[in-house]
Write a structure and sequence with these properties.
The complex is a heterotrimer of chains A (303), B (363) and C (511).
Chain A (H helix, E strand, L loop, with lengths): L2 H28 L7 H17 L3 H26 L4 H20 L13 E2 L14 E2 L1 H19 L1 H11 L1 H6 L4 H27 L11 H11 L4 H23 L6 H20 L2 H7 L11
Antiparallel strand pairs in A: 1-2
Helix pairs in contact in A: 1-5, 1-8, 1-9, 1-10, 2-3, 2-4, 2-8, 2-9, 3-4, 3-8, 5-6, 9-10, 9-11, 10-11
Chain B lengths: L8 E4 L5 H25 L4 H14 L1 H26 L7 H18 L7 H28 L3 H21 L34 H18 L1 H11 L1 H7 L3 H28 L10 H11 L4 H24 L5 H17 L1 H4 E4 L9
Antiparallel strand pairs in B: 1-2
Helix pairs in contact in B: 1-2, 1-13, 2-3, 2-12, 3-7, 3-8, 3-10, 3-11, 3-12, 4-5, 4-6, 4-10, 4-11, 5-6, 5-10, 7-8, 7-12, 8-9, 11-12, 11-13
Chain C lengths: L5 E10 L2 E11 L4 E5 L6 H9 L6 E6 L2 E3 L4 H7 L1 E4 L11 H6 L6 H15 L14 H13 L5 E5 L7 H16 L3 E6 L2 H7 L2 E6 L2 E6 L6 H9 L17 E10 L9 E9 L3 E5 L6 H9 L12 E3 L2 E2 L5 H6 L2 E4 L14 H9 L5 E2 L2 E2 L1 H14 L16 H14 L4 E5 L7 H16 L3 E5 L3 H7 L2 E6 L2 E2 L3 E2 L5 H9 L15
Parallel strand pairs in C: 3-8, 3-9, 6-7, 7-8, 13-20, 13-21, 16-19, 19-20
Antiparallel strand pairs in C: 1-2, 1-4, 4-5, 9-10, 11-12, 11-14, 14-15, 17-18, 21-22, 21-23
The chains are: A mainly alpha (303), B mainly alpha (363), C alpha/beta (511).
Chain lengths: 303, 363, 511
């Protein structure tokens, strides 16, 4: 397989953990809540899913349990940040630390064990195309994630619920004044973020690299946070950002495979380096951030 | 339609409650203890044995307490530095990377000049370590001040990169040629090792340094006008601009102080208990120090106590691993839940809680 | 006799130890315009929130057409037939008009858009349903709020200080709308502290003072002085209009200032020039959102210009355009911003530490360390001299009432003995006694030779204390007008723009 075909075939799968987590965080941030705990929720979801699949519970049960696990942590965060008006940054960090701790604790006995991933589903005809054929041959979770992306884009843009979430994020005081239960809506948005982060973790540990290793999330939750900023809080751009990161993480491997000598530590750092550079470029455009940003992001709101 | 799913109302106090501020860490410790108690039972461990190992054993013998002091040193150094930034709302979560850079900078002397002798070597290594940590923090500082980028994400990414840089050095140019291919540097010469403070233990002069550092931070944050300016920036950014204090300078100072402290701690670690550069040089001090900083109420004195507590928990965790067969990760869970409950408890510093439901309108 | 539309009996609400409302009795008749009159802090807004279900009362009951009504949320109030237009609009800037309305009123966007147009024609409330709210003027936003209320078909419409944001000409237009609504059978609860307005359109007035009802009158049967007495408990303090002094040295000079802010929602400033001299007060009038906030930051030094534009702003004769607030203050400049909490003062810090914010240059810092003794002494003096009601220097700024905090900030800035003083909204949310005291202080300071620049949305206030006044609109300045040679109508015309200045004019906040 050529390097290009390799990247095209793999980038959607590589993008999926980023995409799932970032979409969840997007909804939470749109409602005005900054949850820095994604890495922890992903790690916890990953271990829960891995254990269930490893015990023979199957992927469906594994994903479901991972979603619940992520959501449970998200609700702890919501309790701190929303009900108790704790500093959202500190509360998010607490969840990140707690989630990684739980992940390491429960995963201890599974270190270096493997499970079976999911078979790929090919789009008839298209999957046989030269070079781009691999793009149409993906596991079911990738296909579901693409559907979820479309659904979320539609929901945020065209439904009343989406409108309410955006309104709460822009001006919670006004939303409350016209009668919306701001905290309940934010609880919901944060819980959704936890659910998606749990799924993202489950995908990483049971489908993408079905092998348990402590710390296997390896910063992907943090990159997902950065992706939401890159995308300036827009669903479509989250998708393209995630695919770009999927491609970057494969690009190095492809280059190495095609004989270019690249240092493996440098390759491992590449997504982080790209994150820093892109973050600098996007953030320096203050106008863009202001136009698309969420006005009340990270501010505690008390009725 | 009611606003809250719970019948709980927060009423803002007229001023911060000092009593609640002092009681919050204790309440958090109790709550976290209870939750983890249940967790240990669920895991089939004997909670009494675990708690004895984690909270009592570190203090019963001089030898284990000296290990607590050894563990406390980097935590105290880093957390005091981080707290400066946290209070200025400059959230540096990349102390881990700054620590690693400090360790690398310090190790450069014994790695490149293994034959050098003289009492100045360890002192120079500490200084270099501080500089290395501060240099690593210049990237997020520049990114925040000039490019408006979140220092939270950049500091974290810099830590992940630092870990890869360390790997690169240890499997590549700095690998000990006589080290059986282990990813570690040569053992440092004697003059590159910090002098022992208490004979018969591993406690070294860095402990004094950590307490001096805590004193300096106390002076800086509680007494100096520059520290006051950082506080204003953290509490009310618009007031900073109003008064004409420089926001950029606050970011630079916060990150450089935090980076310097973490780098110093990294240097003290390689020049202290380790005696060489290893892949596991940090064992998560940079992240643990975040918990220490918050748990100490971001106050220079409070952090001395919280670093003692967390250091003891970590030593106790090692004990529990042996005596109660508990994975080390249980300590991380304990610390994480401790922070969760602490953040919940300090709500009471600013707010009173009213539990009753909204009153019925009397007819 | 039919029962009144709305009856309140013994309504009460406390926040902690503060009694915002106590034993309020009130009756609003069908088809009337009923005023709630009271000065800042009298408890008017709290009362409205209780009726609209934003807050729940601690005591008393609400009757709706004679039957008990219990509202625990705005949605319930709307279902009962109560609508409210907030003083600080509860609209969402990044959504369109029709999206904003669809948050409250069910229906498809096309359908809603049609109804918005129809209502607009009936009541003189025309606005484009597809426009984004951030692109609307203040008057248009108010119309959107009113339309949004009307679409839920209310019997009672509450308007919280609806005229405080409008230029004089738009007030006329609002009153016409209210009359038409009344004729259409909608009762109106009109909250205000402006006596002339209440006398102009209201059938009844209930007067609140310190959270209790002090009287209930027909406002047309009393003159403004009598109403004022009821409102504040004693005669309105007189303000002797100070005679102008001979203008002296130029201390603030703004010369062809142009500015395009980073913030896309902020107003660009174009070609501004003016000067303030010793011994005079220059006022800036205008509808909020026309560039006041931006000009304020450029003069205070919170925003700076590129070095090449340093000459655009001069203070005490020196170019300072590229200098920050600290450098400008070193030259003898002092500034009171319109936001007290979080800008002029740090809410979570003690008053003593808040003194340090700008008064550190008076020797409160030595060798880089804070001198706590001097800091406390300075703060105590400020509290005494400016009648700040606070337990002491250790009180937290956030625990003070708006008026007391304003007195503290004004006091702190005056104690710096500035040569040039800049004050934005000097008396916002301050009770009448304190407001008069602050205005007197400003005029005294002027008489001592200070140069003063004041921004205010209250034209009356500017006419009281200024020697000259300018108007800002769409980021541009009108020529400066001598107070002695102009009147409220002329200033009002500049506020809405001269072209549309006659009758039914419109004002734009954003272009």
């Amino acid at each position: 397989m050529s390097g290009l075909a390799f990247i095209i075939a793999g980038m959607l799968a590589a993008a999926t953990p980023f995409l799932l987590a970032a979409l969840g965080e997007l909804v939470a941030e749109r409602s005005g809540v900054l949850n820095l705990g994604i890495e922890g929720m992903m790690a916890f979801g990953a271990v829960v899913a891995f254990i269930i699949v490893h015990q023979g519970g199957g992927h469906a049960a594994g994903f479901l349990a991972a979603g619940v696990a992520g959501m449970a942590l998200a609700l702890v965060f919501a309790w701190l940040a929303l009900s108790l008006r704790a500093n959202q940054v500190a509360a998010g960090l607490a969840i990140a630390i707690l989630g990684e701790g739980l992940s390491a604790l429960f995963g201890k006995t599974y270190e270096s064990t493997t499970v079976t991933g999911l078979p790929k589903i090919a789009v008839p005809g298209l999957a046989d195309l030269p070079v781009a054929g691999g793009l149409f041959q993906q596991d079911p979770i990738v296909w579901l994630t693409l559907l979820a992306t479309l659904g979320l884009w539609y929901a945020l843009r065209f439904t009343k619920l989406g409108l309410v979430i955006r309104a709460v994020g822009e001006n919670p005081g006004a939303a409350r004044a016209i009668g919306y239960p701001v905290l309940a809506i934010r609880y919901g948005a944060v819980a959704f973020g936890g659910l998606m982060a749990g799924f993202a973790g489950a995908y990483a540990s049971t489908v993408y690299t079905p092998l348990w290793a402590e710390g296997m999330i390896a910063g992907r939750g943090w990159i997902a946070l950065a992706l939401v900023v890159f995308a300036t809080w827009m669903t479509g751009r989250v998708f393209f950002g995630a695919v770009l990161f999927g491609a970057v993480s494969l690009g190095g491997l492809a280059a190495q495979a095609s004989g270019v000598s690249l240092n493996s530590q440098f390759l491992a750092s590449l997504p982080y380096i790209v994150t820093i550079i892109v973050l600098g470029i996007i953030s320096s455009n203050k106008r863009l951030l202001k136009i698309n940003g969420v006005a009340s992001l990270g501010e505690p709101f008390g009725p | 339609m009611t606003e809250l799913p719970f019948r709980l109302r927060l009423i803002r106090r007229d001023g911060a409650s000092r009593r609640a501020a002092l009681l919050a860490p204790l309440a958090a410790l109790l709550a976290a203890g209870l939750v983890n108690f249940l967790l240990y039972i669920a895991m089939g461990k004997d909670p009494a044995a675990v708690f004895y190992a984690m909270l009592v054993e570190p203090f019963v013998s001089w030898s284990s307490f000296s290990e607590v002091l050894l563990k406390l040193t980097p935590l105290l150094l880093i957390a005091e530095g981080l707290a400066v930034g946290f209070r200025a709302k400059v959230i540096n979560i990349g102390a881990e990377g700054q620590f690693i850079l400090g360790a690398i900078f310090a190790a450069s002397i014994p790695v490149w000049f293994p034959e050098a002798t003289g009492g100045w070597i360890w002192a120079l290594m500490l200084l270099l370590g501080g500089i290395g940590g501060a240099l690593w923090a210049t990237v997020p500082a520049f990114w925040r001040v000039r490019l408006n980028a979140s220092e939270i994400l950049v500091t974290l990414m810099m830590s992940l990169i630092a870990a890869q840089l360390l790997n690169y050095l240890l499997v590549g140019p700095w690998k000990d040629p006589m080290g059986f291919n282990f990813p570690q540097s040569v053992m440092f010469q004697n003059d590159a090792i910090l002098p022992t403070l208490i004979p018969g233990t591993r406690v070294n002069v860095a402990l004094i340094l950590a307490f001096v550092w805590a004193g300096l931070i106390y002076l800086y944050m509680q007494k100096s006008f520059q520290g006051y300016q950082l506080l204003v920036g953290g509490l009310a950014p618009h007031a900073t601009a109003y008064a004409g204090f420089s926001e950029g300078r606050a970011v630079w100072l916060s990150l450089l102080i935090g980076g310097f402290a973490a780098g110093l701690a990294g240097a003290a670690e390689v020049a202290g208990p380790l005696g060489q550069l290893q892949r596991s040089v940090s064992s998560g001090y940079g992240y643990t120090a975040i918990i220490v900083a918050y748990l100490g109420g971001l106050h220079p004195i409070g952090i001395i106590f919280s670093s003692l507590l967390i250091a003891a928990l970590n030593i106790g965790g090692d004990n529990a691993m042996v005596s109660a067969d508990l994975p080390k990760a249980a300590v991380e869970v304990f610390q994480g839940s401790l922070l969760v409950f602490y953040l919940a408890a300090i709500t009471l510093v600013r707010f009173r809680i009213q539990w009753r439901p909204p009153q019925e309108v009397r007819a | 006799m039919p029962s009144p539309l709305l009856t309140l009996r013994g309504l009460g609400k406390s926040y902690g130890s503060v009694r915002a409302n106590h034993a309020i009795d009130l009756e609003v008749a069908e088809g009337s315009i009923h005023a709630i009159l009271g000065e800042n802090g009298a408890g008017k807004s709290t009362l409205m929130k209780l009726i609209y279900g934003v807050e729940t009362p601690d005591a008393g009951e609400i009757l709706w057409r004679g039957a008990p009504l219990r509202v625990t949320s705005p949605a319930e109030a709307r279902r009962a037939g109560i609508g409210m237009v907030f003083q600080h609009f509860s609209l969402f800037d990044t959504l369109t008009v029709v999206e904003n309305i669809s948050l409250v009123v069910p229906g498809t966007k096309a359908d809603l858009g049609q109804r918005i147009r129809t209502l607009g024609q009936t009541f003189g409330l025309d606005v484009d349903p597809q426009a984004y709210v951030h692109a609307l003027s203040v008057g248009e936003r108010q119309r959107v709020e009113i339309i949004r209320c009307l679409m839920t078909d209310p019997r009672l419409l509450i308007l919280d200080e609806p005229t405080s944001v409008l230029p004089p000409q738009s007030v006329e237009r609002l009153f016409q709308t209210l009359q038409r609504l009344k004729e259409g059978g909608v009762s109106i609860l009109f909250i205000s502290h402006k006596l002339d307005e209440v006398r102009a359109i209201c059938d009844r007035a209930t007067i609140l003072r310190a959270g209790t009802v002090v009287d209930n009158v027909d406002p047309r049967g009393h003159d403004a002085h009598a109403l004022a007495r009821m409102m504040i408990g004693h005669a309105m303090p007189e303000m002797a209009h100070a005679r102008s002094l001979a203008p002296g040295e130029v201390l603030l000079q703004v010369d062809r200032l142009n500015h395009r802010p980073d913030d896309p929602f902020a107003m660009a400033l174009a070609d501004m020039s003016f000067e303030v001299r010793t011994g005079e007060v220059l006022g800036l009038a205008g509808v909020s959102g026309n560039g006041q906030a931006e000009l304020t930051r450029l003069i205070s030094g919170e925003w700076t210009l590129p070095r090449a534009d340093a000459e655009r702003v001069r203070m005490m004769g020196r170019p300072v355009g590229d200098r920050g607030a600290a450098d400008r203050r070193e030259l003898g400049f002092a500034f009171v911003p319109e936001e007290r909490l979080g800008r002029g003062a740090v809410p979570d810090m003690s008053l003593a530490d808040n003194s340090l914010l700008t008064a550190h240059r008076l020797g409160l810092v030595r060798n880089g360390l804070i001198d706590r003794t001097r800091e406390a002494a300075f703060t105590r003096r400020c509290i005494e001299e400016f009648d700040v009601r606070a337990p002491g220097p250790e009180a937290e700024a956030g625990a003070l009432s708006g008026g007391n905090l304003q007195k503290f900030i004004v006091g702190r800035e005056l104690m710096l003995a500035p040569r040039l003083l800049f004050v934005a909204q000097p008396t916002w949310g301050v009770d009448i006694g304190a407001a008069t005291a602050i205005r007197r202080r400003l005029v005294e300071l002027r008489n001592q030779g200070c140069a003063i620049f004041v921004i205010s949305e209250e034209i009356e206030e500017l006419f009281e204390i200024c020697d000259r006044v300018m108007v800002i609109r769409e980021g541009r300045l009108s020529p400066s007008l001598r107070i002695a040679e102009t009147d409220v109508q002329e200033v009002g015309r500049y506020m809405v723009g001269t072209r549309e200045g006659t009758g039914g004019g419109d004002e734009r906040a954003h272009s």
